[in-house]
Every structure is written in structure tokens, then in C-alpha cells.
Specification:
By secondary structure, the chain is an alpha/beta fold. It has four domains: 17-214, Ribonuclease H-like superfamily/Ribonuclease H (Nucleotidyltransferase, domain 5); 246-364, Roll (CBS-domain), CATH 3.10.580; 374-576, Beta Polymerase, domain 2, CATH 3.30.460; 597-717, no CATH class. It is built from 28 helices and 17 strands.
Length: 721
């Protein structure tokens, strides 16, 4: 059996626009009243990112069942004679629904078209699945304040799109696709990278939205907010396997079922099962219900009959009827049924009641295991930024699933960091290949591409930008200041690939494409000595994260030693610079406190608290500087705290308390980031504390009180043992 391939999973809010599977849709109708008028033509074309797949189109004329007004015919050119003998809308909606699948629907004033389709489906008693959508008119108004007209003709002119077949459904759909493709660089320039962000952009065109609502194109449900946040009290809930509550049988079944006739021999059935690598076959009967033959049945008959078992007819030993469940059954309910009936195999029925597939416990184990491996596989096979963007967009869902499954936030941060390093490595491989193909040759010297900060520590959150650097072997004597230099080209392309994939450029400029972060090994050590001998707060703004360096990609084993040597030697330089350590320690302790008068938590106007800058980073920075002072070489903040306390002869209980606070703060920030991404908001370091449980609020207040004492803890641990 082969896994069902009826379409991609539905796109989430974090899906990147550059890799988004979409369908651009348009309709022609008898008029503009979505409640009374009828559809007479539907046109659609598929897109992937900004690529228009012109060979994948849907183009049908529909008999509306009512006369077409002459005024309408003058617009689209279709008359009663043109629609005579054509199918009615009920006959084409299933095909359109299959054509759309789980793709996002895009259109110009798309809510008019969706309202027409919704009402037609209701009118004819046909099932219609509401898709996620983007409206190029709404987005254009939002992104270009003062836009004179968001008409399709005006937008096409703006983006240099020539409309062929204006006021035909497919012609307008193709023109809209061209406009959407032309908008993407502008969207990217405005920081709109994901589906959720694009949806929010469209909703911000409030005047036009209200106009569309006023004519009944769509209505926002009463009493529901624009953004539905996921719960962030995950840590206080009972751990569950969220996979079982998200997936349905039809999502994981093997389809179509492999079958044999009831008159086939056991040998033939066993051979088929072995060839297909499956544990059961469905037995067909002409005059009765189907049955099932499993590998256990085969073994039982072999044990009973020995060499003669192969001639046994499967119809005489099968189990009948096949126990089944509907395809839209959630997995947790299906597993309950299987446990109750002691089943290893469960038939899956489609909406017509026909046997559409088979679900097995083996399938569940494979799907559950592979769900955490797919991201890695996608990184390894990515050849373009948009393929890496798919991986980046999957991280919020992966993080949410891991937290829901009971994994602590520090371990989740390690997974996110590992994926970030893998993406950086793949970007390096892609850039190397592109330079070679362009005639610039292979790397002219050994090198290591380093990640810094949270990625180097293995403590990444979901809002991380790029922090990377390049260390090059001292044998290299090229001109690193030249834009034509191989390493200059390489670094620029790596950073560009990552930015396009959704790992944004570092606002502080800590990236290998910038000359200060691209050096030979000896030059890096000279720079470390300069930092140590001439420390200044302005000069050290981004220096501290350098000491969290870890290699993401190395050109050879020698390059691995380059990275390891740089980390050890630069840390040795820092350890023997009291002034540098003092300044780093003061910087860690000087971060503002989130506690105000009488222990009240400081909130911004939106009711949020900046837990990253006001709580998490003081712990991280403090742990880093005491680790440098005492020569401990742990990467993670909790381990740095524990090792430094041990070396300094300080209380392990205090170190454990701070490590626990670090994990707690990471959980609060991560779960808020997951909720924000789902709502189409840019994730940051602030948390809406009004959504916390009382238990977490009490714990947060206690944590902030301890963070306020970091100054004393750091000062204590900086002392010579």
C-alpha cells in the first residue's frame, strides 16, 4: 500500500508566502447580489509561491438556471445560448473543491467569489469547504496608503501585468495571479513573509473590509476577536499526545486498500503481502461483505496445516466483515475502538461508505516517528530558499507539539537551535554549489561557518534572527575586504538565502556578510585581545554573543579544529581580562527590571511584559560571564550555571533555582510566540500575562524577584574562588 496523496496539509499561519501553494480564483456571475445572483463561469489557476502554474487551470462555464441579464452579458460576453446545455453549479463544485484541495485561495475581491460559491453550494445542497484566503485588493490598499483605486485594471498596470481575456473568469484569475506575484517583493520589503501576516495586512484595510461586510460578502462572527490565540498555559495542563487529537484516519490511512479474491490461495495472498510489504489484505467476495486476511492468520494456518497450508483458499480463513470507521474519525477515537475490539487493522470508509483505505498501528508508529524527522529530511533536500522556508515555517508547529507532549522548553529550544544550525549549513552548501556553477571555483581555503548567541548555546526561540560569523584558515591570503572575494560572495549569498527562508537579517549586523564578522583565525584572536584590552560598552554591544559560537558548517575536519580552537582560545583571552569580565557582568546585571513599586509587574500599553530583555537575557548573560570567568566550557545556560557554581564552590541549589527559572521563562516566551505566529503577529519577547494561570503568575512574580538579584549573584560568582 502507498500513503494517500490527496493533497498537501492545510497551510498554517506560519506558512511562508514564497513557498505557499495557492489557487487564484475568479467567477463571472449574473449580477453582484451574492444572495440572489448565480455563477455562470469559474476560472482558477494554481500557484507555488510567486510561480504561476499555467498548465494547472480550472475553467468551466456553468448554466445558472436563470436568464442572464443583458447588462451582465455586456460585461462578460456570455449569453443564455452560451450556457445552454452546460452543467449546473452543483455538478462542478466537487471538481472545484478537489482542484483547490488544501491550498489557500487568492483573488481580487475574493470574498465576493467565495460568497457566491458558498451560497450556490447551500442552494443546491452541496458540501462546500471554506478555504483560507488572501485578497489582493485588500492587501494593496493596506500596503499602499492613498491608493487611488484597487481595481484589477489599476493593479495590473502598476505591476506590469497584461490582461488577456478581461472579464472572463480564467483571464481575470491569471491577471490576479500576475498581480499577486508582482506584489511579493513589496510584501517582503514590508516584512510580510507569512500567510498569517498577509491575512492581518488585508484585515488592516478596515474601510474596504467594512464595505465588503456591508454588502454581505462575509461577516465576522459576533463576539469573536480578530485573532484567536492558542492557550499558553501549556505547562499547567496534563501532557497529551497532540498528534492523536489533530489527525484523522483519512490523513494517515494507506490507500487504496490492496485486495485479493476470496478464491485466491493462501500462498498467493502471502506472496502479495510480502511483495507489498504489508501486514494484511482485503478479501473481495462477489456475494457477501468483504473480509480481511492478516499476517497472523497466515501464521496460524501454517502452524495448523504445515506444508499444505499454501493451497488453502483465503475465503475460508478470512475475518468478515471488516471492522471500519469513517475517514474523518479522529485518531484518539479510532485507537479507542481498536483497543476495545483488540484490532491491529481498521478499515476506513469514505463519505459514500465505501472502503477507501486501511489504518494500522504500524502506520501510526511510522507517522508519529516521522513527524519529527520530516523537517530534517526537508533541510537535507532543499535546493532553494523557499524550500528552506517551509522548514522554518514548520518550527512553530513542531515546538507546539513538543511542548504539548511534555518536553521542557529548554529541550524544545535545543531542537529549534539544531534546526537553525542545519538550515545554516544547508544554506552554505547551496551557496558553495552556486559559486562553483557560476565559475568562481571551490572554497580557496578551509573555513567554518559559525552560529552565535542562542543558536550557538542551543537555546533558540521562534523569533531568532541571524547571528553568524566566518572563520577562515590562516593560509588564506585573499582580499576579504573586496566584494569580489570568494568568501565575500559566499557569505553574502548565505545570509541572503537564510533571510529569504525566513531567518531574518540581524538588526545589529552580526552576519558573515559584514566584514567585521568575516576573519581568519589569527585575525579573530587579535580581535578578541582588542576586546579584552580596550573594553567599552559601545564596542561590546554584540561581542558577548561571540563567546557562544558553535560551528554550523565546516569545509573539512581541519575546519572543525579551527572553530574549536577559536572558541577555546578566545574564551582563554576573556578569562584573563578582569576589565572585560567586569563590564560584561555589569551589562548583564544592568538590564532593567520588570518589577515596579510594591512588586507589581511592569506592563506596556498592550498589557504585555518583556520577559526576554527584562528577565531571560540577564540570566543568559550572567551565566555566560561567570562561565568565562571560571573557565567552564558548557554551552547551555543551565549547565553553565551548575558548572560555574561547582568551580566557584557556591551553592548548587542557587544554580538549580536559576536554571529552573531559565526554563520557565523560555516556556512562557515560546508558548506566547506560538500563539502570536498562529494569529499572524510577529513573535517577540513579550508575553501577555493576562492569559497566564494564577499558578504561573505567582511563579513569574517570584522569578522576577530572583532576576532582580542577578547583580549580586553575578558579582559573587565573578570573585576568585
Amino acid at each position: 500500500m502507498t500513503p494517500r496523496t490527496s493533497g498537501e496539509a492545510a497551510a498554517g499561519a506560519s506558512a511562508p508566502l514564497i513557498a505557499l501553494d495557492t489557487v487564484v480564483l475568479d467567477t463571472e456571475t449574473t449580477g453582484l447580489d451574492v444572495r440572489q445572483d448565480r455563477i455562470i463561469q469559474i476560472g482558477a489557476v494554481r500557484m507555488h509561491g510567486a510561480d504561476i502554474l499555467e498548465s494547472e487551470v480550472f475553467d468551466v462555464i456553468v448554466n445558472p438556471g436563470i436568464p442572464i441579464p443583458p447588462a451582465s452579458s455586456r460585461v462578460h460576453g456570455l449569453s443564455d445560448a452560451d450556457v445552454a446545455g452546460r452543467p449546473n453549479v452543483a455538478e462542478v463544485l466537487d471538481g472545484l473543491r478537489d482542484f483547490i484541495g488544501n491550498r489557500v485561495v487568492i483573488g481580487h475581491s475574493i470574498n465576493f467569489d467565495l460568497a457566491m460559491l458558498r451560497n450556490e453550494a447551500h442552494r443546491h445542497g452541496v458540501h462546500w469547504k471554506e478555504p483560507r484566503w488572501l485578497d489582493v485588493a485588500l492587501m494593496s490598499v493596506a500596503i499602499t496608503p492613498g491608493l487611488v483605486s484597487p481595481s484589477l485594471d489599476n493593479l495590473a498596470l502598476t505591476h506590469g501585468v497584461q490582461i488577456e481575456g478581461r472579464h472572463t473568469a480564467l483571464g481575470d484569475a491569471l491577471a490576479t495571479a500576475g498581480v499577486y506575484a508582482g506584489m511579493q517583493p513589496r510584501l517582503l520589503g514590508k516584512g510580510i513573509r507569512t500567510l498569517g501576516e498577509a491575512e492581518n495586512l488585508g484585515r488592516s484595510a478596515t474601510t474596504l473590509v467594512e464595505q465588503q461586510q456591508g454588502v454581505g460578502w462575509f461577516e465576522r462572527p459576533a463576539g469573536k476577536p480578530d485573532f484567536v490565540h492558542t492557550a499558553i498555559e501549556v505547562g499547567s495542563q496534563r501532557a497529551i499526545d497532540s498528534f492523536l487529537y489533530r489527525q484523522r484516519l483519512e490523513d494517515v490511512m494507506s490507500s487504496p486498500p490492496i485486495t485479493v479474491d476470496a478464491g485466491a490461495s493462501l500462498y498467493e495472498a502471502a506472496r502479495l503481502m510480502a511483495d507489498k510489504g504489508i501486514g494484511c489484505v482485503i478479501v473481495r467476495q462477489a456475494d457477501g461483505p468483504h473480509g480481511i486476511l492478516t499476517e497472523r492468520d497466515v501464521l496460524r494456518v501454517l502452524a495448523d496445516k504445515g506444508p499444505e497450508a499454501g493451497a488453502t483458499l483465503v475465503g475460508t480463513i478470512m475475518t468478515s466483515p471488516v471492522i471500519t470507521a469513517q475517514g474523518d474519525t479522529f485518531l484518539y477515537r479510532a485507537l479507542g475502538l481498536m483497543a476495545r475490539r483488540n484490532l491491529r487493522y481498521l478499515g476506513v470508509r469514505d463519505e459514500h461508505g465505501d472502503l477507501a483505505g486501511v489504518f494500522t498501528l504500524r502506520t501510526l508508529l511510522r507517522e508519529r516517528a516521522l513527524s519529527t524527522l520530516t523537517v530534517g529530511d526537508q533541510i537535507a533536500t532543499a535546493t532553494r530558499p523557499r524550500e528552506l522556508a517551509r522548514v522554518q515555517s514548520a518550527l512553530p508547529s513542531l515546538a507546539s507539539g513538543l511542548i504539548s507532549d511534555g518536553l521542557n522548553a529548554q529541550a524544545v529550544g535545543a531542537v529549534i537551535a539544531a534546526e537553525g544550525r542545519a538550515m545554516t549549513a544547508r544554506a552554505a552548501e547551496i551557496a558553495e554549489g552556486e559559486l562553483l556553477a557560476a565559475g568562481h571555483g571551490p572554497p580557496p581555503a578551509e573555513y567554518a561557518l559559525l552560529v552565535l548567541g542562542s543558536a550557538g548555546r542551543g537555546e533558540s526561540l521562534l523569533a531568532a534572527d541571524q547571528d553568524n560569523a566566518l572563520v577562515i584558515d590562516d593560509d588564506y591570503h585573499g582580499d576579504l575586504d573586496s566584494e569580489e572575494d570568494w568568501f565575500s560572495r559566499f557569505s553574502t549569498r548565505v545570509n541572503e538565502i537564510l533571510d529569504r527562508a525566513g531567518v531574518h537579517y540581524c538588526r545589529g549586523g552580526v552576519m558573515a556578510k559584514n566584514r567585521p564578522w568575516r576573519r581568519t583565525h589569527a585575525d579573530w584572536l587579535r580581535q578578541a585581545r582588542i576586546w579584552a584590552s580596550e573594553p567599552s560598552r559601545q564596542g561590546l554591544a554584540n561581542v558577548d554573543i561571540f563567546f557562544d559560537l558553535a560551528p554550523a558548517y565546516v569545509s573539512s575536519a581541519k575546519a572543525t579544529r579551527l572553530a574549536d580552537s577559536l572558541r577555546l582560545e578566545s574564551a582563554h583571552v576573556a578569562r584573563h581580562s578582569p576589565d572585560l569580565l567586569r563590564m560584561l557582568g555589569e551589562d548583564a546585571a544592568a538590564r532593567y527590571s520588570q518589577l515596579g513599586m510594591f512588586g507589581r509587574i511592569r506592563k506596556d500599553n498592550g498589557g504585555r511584559v518583556d520577559l526576554k530583555n527584562g528577565a531571560l537575557l540577564p540570566l543568559v548573560s550572567g551565566a555566560r560571564v561567570v562561565a568565562l570567568r571560571h573557565g567552564t566550557f558548557a554551552h547551555t545556560t543551565p549547565e553553565r550555571l551548575r558548572q560555574a557554581a561547582a568551580v566557584a564552590g557556591r551553592s548548587q541549589a542557587d544554580a538549580a533555582l536559576l536554571a529552573d527559572m531559565h526554563g520557565f521563562l523560555m516556556r512562557l516566551i515560546l508558548t506566547q510566540q506560538i500563539a502570536d505566529i498562529e494569529a499572524g503577529l510577529k513573535p517577540g519577547g513579550t508575553v501577555d500575562v493576562s492569559r497566564l494561570s494564577q499558578r504561573d503568575m505567582d511563579r513569574l512574580r517570584d522569578a522576577l524577584q530572583h532576576v532582580a538579584l542577578v547583580r549580586n549573584v553575578v558579582r559573587d560568582l565573578l570573585q576568585v574562588p
